[in-house]
Amino acid sequence: MEDCDYVRPEEIIGEMSEEEKGMFENLATATGETKPDILKKIQEYAAENMEAWKKMKVYVGIVGDPGAGKSTFINSIRGLKPKAPGAAEVGLGHTTSVVTEYPHPARPESLVFVDFPGVLLKKGTGEEPDFNIQQYLDEFGEKMDQCHVFLVFSSGRIQHNAVQIGMKAREMGKKVLFVRSQFDVDLDKRQNDDPDYFDDHTEADLREELRQDYIRVLNEVGWEGEVDPRDVFIISGRLRNVSEGSWDIPKFRKVMIEGLSALQKMVVINTCRDFSQNTIKERGDIYRSYVWKVAMAATAGSFVPFAIPGAIGIAYNQYKEGFGLTEDAVEQLAKMTNKSPEDLKQFLSSNLLAGARGSVGENEALAVVQALCDEMGITLTTAIAVDQVVNLAFPVIGALVTAPVSFPITYTLLYALISRMENCASDLFDYAFRESVV
User: Of 237, 132, 229, 228, whose CA–CA distance to 182 is shortest?
Assistant: First the structure.
C-alpha cells in the first residue's frame, strides 16, 4: 500500500523545533539506516516527547503604575478571585520595590507571571529617588531577561519609568505588549458622562479611541519607535471578563503566545483556562500542529483489542483541558453563568458522546474514539492495527518512511477529535452564556 486517502504527505509534519528538524535530517542522511530503523527512532522520539511541554517554563513580565489593574489581571489570568489563596493583593495603590512572582496554581513550575516594580525606592526610607534605568537593570535585569513576554499596563496614564523598563525589555529581544485595563470602568464613565456618544458610536469605536490615546501617551512620555496598534489591547482584568474573552482579551491571548515555541504555547493553552468563542480555533490549531507526534507515538507497539493507545488517551485529556471541557472547568463556567453544573455537564456529554454505542462506562475517551471511527467508516481495529504499511513523505527530511497504515488513519482520527472538541466547546460556551441569568 503506497498511498492513503486520509492525509496528504505534506500535512504529516506540523510545527517543529530546529532541534527536531536537525534530528530528522540526520536520520535521513545516516548511512545504513533502513526505513524501519528511521520509523522506530521517530516513534521512540514521539513517545518520549509527547508531554515534553510539561518541562517547559514560561515567564510573563508585567510593569505599570499603581492602580493600573495589574494585580486584578494577574489574579484573573490565573483563574483566581481577589481573596483566594495565592492571589495578588488588589487596590493597594502604593508602590513596591521588589519583584513578585505569581505562579499559576494549575502548573506553578511551568507558568509564572512576574510583577516588576515601576520605581526604585531608597532602602529603609520608602523614598523615590530620580529613576535610573541602569540601576534598575543592575537590580532586576537578570529577572527581566528570564521573561518571554513583557506587558506594560496602563489605566489611562503611564509614568516614564514604565516606558523605560518596557524599552529595555524590547532591547533584550522580548515581545512587548501594551495593555490598557479597566475598560469596564471607561465604558461606564462614558455612558454616564456622555450618553449621547453611543447614538452614533459603538464600544469598538471607544476601544479604538483609547488605543490611539495610549499610543499618544506612550510617545509623549518617551517611547522610542513606532507602536503597532495591534500590540495595544483594551481590556478589563476582571475574572469574568478575562475568562469569557471580553473586548480585546481574545486578541491579547493570541498575540501573547505568538513568539513562544510550540511547547511553550502548549503550556499556556493547557494552563490558562479560557471560555472565549474567539480563541477556540487558535487552540485547535496548536493541537493540530502537534498531531503528527501523537500519531507516531500512538501507532508504535502492538495492537490491544478493545483499547486505545495511551498516546491518544493522553491527547484526549489534554484537548479536554485546553478547550475548557474538564469537570472542574465546567463547574467554574456554571458558577460564572449562574447555571446548574449538572445541566452543563449533561449538555456537554450529549455533544461529546454523540454517536457513541451502548453504555459508555468509565472509558469516555474510548467511546468518543469509537464514535468518530464510525463517522469515518472505519473500525477501531483498522485505526490502530499495525500489520500493513504505507510510505509517508516527511517534507522536513525529504525522505520516505515506511509507517504503519494506521499512522495516517490515526492522524486523521486525531484531527476529527480536535474538531469535535472545538464544536463542543463552542456549543457549550454559547449555551452557558446565552442562557445565563445575571
Answer: 237
- Cite the beta strand spans of 317-435 per DSSP E: 389-394, 399-404
pTM of the model: 0.83
- What cell was used for 376? 469515518
Q: Nearest to residue 282, comparing CAs of 268, 297, 298?
A: 268
282, three cell numbers: 487558535
**DSSP string over 190-218:** HHHH-GGGGGS--HHHHHHHHHHHHHHHH
Locus of grid cell 509534519: 13
List strands edge to edge, sheet with 149-154.
100-103, 111-115, 58-64, 149-154, 175-180, 232-234
The Cα 231–Cα 215 span in angstroms is 10
Q: What is the per-residue pLDDT across 319-344, written as a single tens digit (0 to 9) for each?
A: 999 999 999 999 999 998 899 999 99
* pLDDT: which is higher, 167 or 37: 167
Which of helix, strand or coil describes residue 401?
strand
Longest CA–CA separation in the chain, Å: 78
